Amino acid sequence: MQDDKNLSDIDIEDQTIIENKELSIWEALIPVVILMLMLAYNIFLADGEALGEYSNQFILLLGAAVAAIVGFFNKVRFQIMMKEVWENLRSVFVPIMILFLVGALAGTWLVSGVIPAMVYYGLQVLSPSIFLPASVIICAVISIATGSSWTTSATVGIALIGIGSALGIPTGMIAGAAISGAYFGDKMSPLSDTTNLAPAMAGTDLFTHIRYMALTTIPTIIITLIAFSVMSMTIDTTGTADLSSLLISIENTFNITPMLFIVPLVVIALILLKTKPLIALGVGVILAAVFAFIFQPAILDSLGDSKLGATVNAILTDTQIVTDNEKLNDLFAAGGMKGMIWTILLICCAMFFGGIMDAIGALARITKVLLSFATTVFGLFASTVISCLGLNTIASDQYLAIVIPGKMFKQAYKDKGLAPENLSRTLEDSGTVTSVLIPWNTCGAYQSSVLGVSVADYFVYAIFNWLSPFMTLTYAALNIKIKQLTSNTK
N or C: which end of the chain has fewer CB within 10 A? Predict the structure, then answer.
């Protein structure tokens, strides 16, 4: 789940797929190839700064311009392109608001002492030997309960990054563990919108989908836990030897009390009560601001001329709290709403590219070509996986990576005599969980920004996410638990 949409808010019939018979597959691929080449050059040869700080954003806009030129040559009107761009931008309005609130949340949770308290108590409970698998389990439990990987990252994910960093564990590993657990829970929770959307697109019911999905998901999370357990036992940490000095530094800087945990507990309780994330996170910001006045007056005095001004500054822009321990100085810094602007612009530019690609019929054309290669059962599964991965990359949206392949491949699964839960499971195994592995996808941009770790740094360690498509293909190749249609359902 990436925002506050529930299945009732997602009108399946409104998820149109624009086809353009005049567009060839080679024309459809031109913007994709050019975009991939530009992004590859920027990432691998120009250190992400080929066109300045906002290089990826400019590249996505250039890719959109190329797609628009292809569209003009194929008689697609400019108004149609802009309409699809607007629909895409409108679809990410709530996620953008969530991002702004997460930035404000990080700032107020810092100055109120909430994050320092989580780090302080967490250092005493979570040792390096169990930290990574424990992080997977904690995030999985929270995400199952809330149905949202996004809110899981914005609450316990941020805390785990702080605790693990203080223990000397690489942030990429921590983020990978947190994301693996969060997406396992998101995928298996009946409260998640994607878990509801996938069976709706495939033509099966929610709990049949969840039970069938467990066949591939449980082995994947077990392998993930084993991998992180091995990492935890072999990792060379630097934080344990300096643990006492870290705790003393936190105590000397902040007023640490268990009362501070009221703030995150209230936010989690609101989410469990199905309160919209915008409201839950907004309450978290306001409550943390109040707690800053009550518990951290000295911190607020050190940050500005007035306590109110320091609190507003923490919400809107950069905040840095200096301690007597250098390790904690980087940890106790937040960017507020301002820190989310880069990510928000990336999402908007990705939606611009995806909207034009949809408007010119390129997404439908690419998916249809993949469908034409699905001559065998394994080929059908492989085509679905590739389609989901491709749409997460091209359209930059998790929902489109489920909706378009779901509509395109539904009849093909039926024609092969396969039960619809095969399709719904494959959509989740390859569409839902891989969105976070694409830097310019809404999910990848969000998680990277919230956790403060680049996708490149956590990619390898997001084991559950990249292993899931391989697991579903393995089951298909070996014909393990591939359910056939019964005579009553054909």
Answer: C
